[in-house]
Amino acid sequence: MANYTPMIQQYLEIKRQYTDAFLFFRLGDFYELFFEDAVLASRELEITLTGREGGGEERIPMCGVPHHSAENYISQLLQKGFKVAICEQVEDPKVAKGVVKREVTRMITPGTMIEGKWLHDKENNYLVAITAVAGKAAIAACDLSTGEMYVTALSTMYRAMEEAMQYRPSELLLCDIATDELKGKGLPPHMPVTSLAHNEVNHLAVDEQYQEQAGSLEEASRLAINALLQYVGQTQKRALSHMRTLNCYVADEFLQMDPFSRRNLELTETIRDKSKKGSLLWLLDKTETAMGGRLLRRWIERPLMNRQEIERRYDAVQALQADMLLRSDVRVALDHVYDLERLAGRISYGNANARDLVQLRHSLEAIPKLRKMLLATEEAALIEVAEEMDDCQEVAQFLTETLVEEPPLSVREGGLIKEGYDEYLDKLRLASREGKIWIAQLEQAERQITGIRSLKVGFNKVFGYYIEVSKANLAHLPEGRYERKQTLTNAERYVTPELKEKEALILEAEEKLVELEYQLFTNIRLEVANHIPRIQELAERVARIDALQSFATVGEERRFVRPTITDEGDMRILDGRHAVVEAVLDQEKYVANDIYMNQEERNILLITGPNMAGKSTYMRQMALIAVIAQIGCFVPAREAHISLIDQIFTRIGAADDLVGGFSTFMVEMLETRNALVKATPRSLILLDEIGRGTSTYDGMALAQAVIEYIQEHIGAKTLFSTHYHELTDLDKKLKGVINVHARCEERDGKLLFLHKIEEGKADKSYGIHVAELAEMPIEVISRAREILSGLEGKEREPQPEQLSLEILWGQEEGSPVLQKDRKDAAPVREENASKEVEPVHEETRIVESIQVHSDEMDVILELKDLDLNQMTPLQALIQLSEWNSRLRKKK
Ligand code: ADP
Ligand code: MG
Q1: With respect to CATH, is domain 423-511 assigned 3.40.50.80?
Q2: Distance (Å) from CA 650 to ligand 2 centroid
Q3: Spatial contact of 606 and 728, defined as CB atoms under 8 Å apart
Q4: What is the pLDDT of residue 1?
Q5: What is the value of pTM for the model shown?
Q6: What is the CATH number assigned to the segment(s) 285-392+531-558?
Q7: How remote is the CA of residue 696 from the centroid of ligand 2, in Å?
Q8: Domains 285-392+531-558 and 564-765 equal at CATH topology level
Q9: Which residues line ligand 1 (CB under 6 A)?
Q10: Which CATH superfamily is domain 127-253 in?
Q11: Could you tell me the pLDDT band of residue 765, with boundaries at 50, 70 and 90?
């Protein structure tokens, strides 16, 4: 090793313990980065790379950021998924012998952020741990900024990943699981992942932190929580008093949706640009507080199955929706409540300032009024929440007595504590004030003594207080009393012994004042920290009321009605609407549609109609109404009777997304398979033109087989849209299959979309009309009409096959697995050509037999999810080579 200077040796020593993070090494007013850290950081942050001598043969690469603007740089790195270790000088450089002692005081990682621009008010920031013990998986999720902790056990790793992803974690922590195990199970690219081994974890942490619940937890759940606590301890390096409540839940007790279905229904973000605007969350979010906003998001992500709890929410919403005055009063009261959860987090961290505490006080002061108006309602569901609200008024009172109304941002410059709280502080203030008054009067007094009218008393930072006399008047100055301090061009500055004495008094008092105020302030903060669990519980209640009033406000605005929940397995929705589409339609009005399904007679609706007629919208409308109903909100309809749904699956035909040819079709089949394997009679399945990604007969055969399978083996409620008219005859063969169609009318040779869903099948396809709508050249349109009339009556020829497997994978032979797949998944041409497509049970095997875990498929899925915009060319290259080697290994 080179003969490095002591400081660089110290750096290397520390860096060795933090190999997976950027080490921000404090040097005076800068955080410096060295060696590879510097090279990488200069590129990622676009800052200049320099170098310094460090005793080695070559200059050491170095770059740095000013410590006061470090936050910005740190959050940039975090957003890119990196970790940052903050290494501070832990002794005063003035008194240090040799190299100043330095220590890492905190690690900041994407999942453990507690402040900063990157945290959104209405979004949680979750760190999620995944573990597996003895064949059982578990996940634990925590948000350090609010102190929430959730845990649940799951049957398989696949489910664990699904559940973990539901939190949209900023970072994953794996305990005793190899990252490879998660490949192909929906691990997003670029997800920061940290691994922790079993033996690095303190296995008793959960018993200490969550005494009450620890006993009833399963092994895997315990390990997940312990791993989280371990990592939080390692990174934060301090005890956190706000992580007190543990929420244990059973994932299967909520309505299940896989990540694909969630995305497809646009619950919290749109598919197109991943923005909140245009999502269900966007429509329903009329919350006034940050914690209400976060709770609403959690509700939408986890709809209920428990009828009682759903009805309890309905009751509250009903009371709020019916009483406009109450609703607006509640909203006004909530508007005064700041983010209690994150305030509590900052107090616990010890980085809350006086303004934070004053905000806490204002928030608490708004509670009694809120509580009172809720108690005055006659609605049990509201009264109950109000009764549980502990308004913490003595905390508010305490803050009123201790802190001034408008404290400064800094807690180190005084001006925080109220008069009358601390006797000694008041004495010091008095001394300082009296001194200042004396000085203020000095000018007048000195003018009188000397007779110099232009005499001035002033203050500057270097020389302190002075008496200034212009050169012209020097002669009038009496002898002896004045001591010269500073000479200016036109004037001399003096002090007197008395002035010096007062000045010392003032300065000393002020120094002590600032120190004492800081002391008092930290004590006040500690005192408030004792009440954090109460504040958190209050925050929960406030969030609940906020989310409920949000439902009521939207419900009133958009004419939602209270659904009736039935146990009969019926869905009866009159004049239902897709509330989001309705909200974004400008001039046109949304056409309301009925939906009627039941368990025996009509559980599969086969929807036909031309492109753009409203089939997809109708299907999503059903799913969204189910979700909205099961989060406890009223629904966009004139009348609604619903049965609770346990799972929702949505699958979209690959032809809508032509980017991938065969691979999308494969994905479509995999996803359909998933639905078929997991669905129960209480599930809702939306199959939107599946089978389009392959040749006509293939697609049709598959579509029919899927319908038959659902009907014979599952009995789930299914909405199936298709452009295969041939399928509409199924209603004669299968009980429960009903044809409906999106009605269109031809007027003057043009096609008019009525967006009305009616019973019976569509009379014909309108493809050419749609082409006309798209303003295709008139020659094309009329030629198409000609060809069509020629074709009509004739049998339709099978279409040429789509991209073949070999082309996609670029293999001459294909792996054995693939050949098998290929045989089952894509019947060869001879089979296609046979005109009698008589799907029998054998064909349902097609879907079941697809190998989900084939490595090739994993690669395709990963490729599909890859966000190229987030990658550097180098990262892309690395990814490519990794895939390459995985595929070769297989071969
Ligand atoms: P399809 O799936 O039949 O091709 P979509 O459901 O995608 O048709 O609907 C196409 C467009 O028609 C939508 O983007 C929407 O603007 C409009 N639309 C659909 N349903 C309705 C409705 N019930 N009322 C008004 N406009 C609708
Ligand atoms: Mg569609």
Answers
A1: no
A2: 12
A3: yes
A4: 58
A5: 0.81
A6: 1.10.1420.10
A7: 17
A8: no
A9: 581, 588, 590-591, 593, 609, 611-617, 742, 755
A10: MutS, connector domain (3.30.420.110)
A11: low
